[in-house]
Design the sequence.
């Protein structure tokens, strides 16, 4: 199952971009034997200032057809890392060929896109800077893959 992080905005070169890329690369390498990966970042940008609706349209085009969809949203569920790993494994085992995680812009995700998600996921009630949320998501994807692979990275 291919893993996609679809995010509004383009990250410039810097530590947040480096960390996101590193965790997604690691997830792809570790997950290959498990049928997970590659893990890729797809950035979209609303240059016309159309707001959440325009961003949702761009995100929709980045999401592969038939992908399981996870919306990052402050109103979403909080999961432990092992439960997150289990959910990813379940989609893989159900035969889903793609899993897409979507992160909206400054105002979040448009309600229609958020509502069609298979899972709405939150990193807690605090608000996180967009680039740090990307890093945290990429790390949790990597952590989930290592849990499924049985490596010692995750210690509970």
Sequence:
């Amino acid at each position: 199952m291919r893993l996609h992080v679809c995010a509004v905005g383009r990250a410039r070169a810097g530590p947040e971009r480096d960390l996101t890329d590193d965790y997604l690369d690691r997830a792809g390498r570790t997950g290959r034997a498990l049928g997970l990966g590659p893990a890729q970042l797809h950035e979209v940008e609303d240059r016309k200032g159309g707001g959440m609706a325009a961003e949702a349209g761009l995100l929709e085009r980045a999401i592969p057809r038939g992908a399981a969809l996870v919306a990052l949203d402050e109103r979403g569920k909080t999961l432990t890392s092992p439960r997150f790993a289990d959910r990813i494994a379940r989609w893989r085992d159900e035969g889903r060929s793609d899993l897409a995680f979507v992160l909206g812009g400054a105002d979040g995700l448009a309600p229609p896109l958020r509502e069609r998600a298979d899972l709405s996921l939150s990193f807690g009630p605090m608000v996180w800077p967009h680039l740090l949320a990307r890093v945290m998501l990429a790390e949790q994807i990597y952590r989930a893959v290592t849990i499924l692979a049985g490596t010692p990275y995750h210690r509970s």
In short: The helical segments are 15-31, 51-62, 81-93, 111-115, 130-149. The first helix runs from residue 15 to 31. Residues 2-149 form a domain with the Alpha/beta knot fold (CATH 3.40.1280.10).
